[in-house]
Amino acid sequence: MAVHKLILDNVFEEELYTLVAIHCALEDYRLAYLLNKYLGISLIRKSQDLDYQNGKSIYSIFEWEDNKQQTIWSLVSNICKTEEFRQKSNESLFDSEEKITRTAYLIPEYKTVNYFLKIDTEINFSKEKYILNNVLKVPQIATAYSIDVNQLKSKDNLIFN
Fold first, then answer.
1. What domain of life is recorded for the organism (predicted)?
2. What does pTM read for this prediction?
3. Residues near 83 by beta carbon (within 8 Å), at least 6 away in sequence
4. Domain architecture of the chain: domains with CATH
């Protein structure tokens, strides 16, 4: 009996996108407004947030589809803080609860990054530099820089659709 071997190297092409890390202390809606203003885009909050680990970590996401350039812009939060109450296991007369705050990250390699701006097309260096310069013009943003997506271990978390 003949053995057939399928090679799927070229079937699954890697998606090309540009990723910008943003460090700031702004709320997500305020940052989306300022990016809209400085970049000339129209980010809108999606009706459903990104939900990982069955509701244990939820990340806000804003998106804009540029039909003219056939590009999708996404602004996503990197940090998710959840609070839960747990009974203290003291052997005392009065039971008490303690509040535990857990922090989860969309991209754990970049724990200091507050937000990611994902642009779903590969853009040339001059366009990327133009976008970065306009992002850095926002006074409330401490810093922003491009990330090499090929070096990310958790790049599967950046698949939003």
1. Bacteria
2. 0.81
3. 99, 100, 101, 102
4. 18-79+106-158 (3.30.310)
